[in-house]
Design brief:
The chain is mainly beta and 225 residues long. It contains 2 helices and 21 strands. Helix content is 12%, strand content 32%. It is globular, with a radius of gyration of 20 Å. The C terminus is likely disordered.
Length: 225
C-alpha cells in the first residue's frame, strides 16, 4: 500500500524531529569548534552525549561513526599525554549509555559495534593509600586496549585493562554482562565474569565451534558438538 508523506509524518512522534535537528546541530558545532584529532565524514553524535571540549584533541573519529544518546567519553585529569587516547575507526557504532574512559589508549577499529551500557576503561582509581580518600588519589598508570575490527560487545559488557596490553581480536563477540580483563584471539565468542573463551570460528568448516578449554600455548580442545 502506498503511503503519502503526510501519513508518514503523522505516524511519527513530532518530537523525534527536534531530537534529530539537535543532534545534527550539535554534531556540526562540535566538528567546527572542537579541536578533534580526527573527525570523519558522516559522523553523528547525539546531543545528549558528554564529550568535553577539553579532551577533543585526544579523540579521533573515523567516517560514519555513530554515538548514541547519553554516551560519555572521558579522559582523566591526571593524564598528561598529548597522544590520541580514544580512536574510533570507520563505521563504529556506540550504544546508548556506554562509557569509554581512556588514560592511555583505547582503539576501536573499523565497524566495532557496542550494545547499550558498555564500559571500556584502560585504568582504575588508585586506592593503595588507606589514609586518603580514594577520590583524592588519582588514577593508576593503566594499560592499553585495542578492539579489533567488526567486534560486537553485548549489553553491559566491561572491557578493563589494569596494566599492559589488552587486545580483542577481529570479528569477536562478547556476551552480555561479561567482564573482559585479558586478551583473546580473533574470531572468538567470549562470555562470563571473568570472561572465558566459549567458541571459535573454524575457517575450514565455516562454523563456530564450541571450545572445551584454551591452554596456555593457545591450543584448542573441542568438545563434542
Amino acid at each position: 500500500m502506498h503511503m503519502n508523506l503526510q501519513t508518514v509524518i503523522l505516524r511519527d512522534d513530532p518530537l523525534t524531529y527536534a531530537s534529530r535537528f539537535l543532534t545534527k546541530a550539535r554534531t556540526a558545532w562540535m566538528q567546527t569548534t572542537y579541536p578533534f584529532r580526527g573527525f570523519g565524514r558522516g559522523v553523528s553524535i547525539h546531543y545528549t552525549c558528554e564529550v568535553p571540549k577539553s579532551i577533543a584533541n585526544r579523540v579521533s573519529l573515523g567516517d560514519a561513526v555513530y554515538i548514541a544518546p547519553h554516551v560519555w567519553l572521558t579522559i582523566p585529569e591526571d593524564s598528561h599525554s598529548t597522544q590520541p587516547a580514544i580512536i574510533m575507526g570507520n563505521g563504529c557504532k556506540i550504544g546508548r549509555r556506554s562509557m569509554i574512559s581512556a588514560k592511555n589508549y583505547i582503539c576501536l577499529e573499523a565497524d566495532v559495534l557496542l550494545a547499550p551500557s558498555v564500559l571500556i576503561m584502560d585504568h582504575n582509581h588508585e586506592y593503595s593509600d588507606i589514609s586518603l580518600p580514594i577520590h583524592a588519589q588519582g588514577t593508576t598508570s593503566g594499560g592499553r586496549i585495542t578492539i579489533g575490527r567488526n567486534c560486537w560487545l553485548g549489553y553491559n559488557a566491561v572491557i578493563f585493562c589494569a596494566k599492559g596490553e589488552l587486545t580483542l581480536g577481529r570479528n569477536s563477540v562478547v556476551g552480555a554482562n561479561s567482564v573482559v580483563t585479558s586478551s583473546f584471539p580473533p574470531f572468538s565468542v567470549i562470555a562470563g565474569n571473568p570472561a572465558r573463551l566459549i567458541k571459535r570460528y573454524e575457517p575450514g568448516s565455516g562454523e563456530w565451534v564450541r571450545v572445551e578449554e584454551w591452554s596456555r600455548e593457545g591450543r584448542l580442545s573441542r568438545c563434542a558438538s
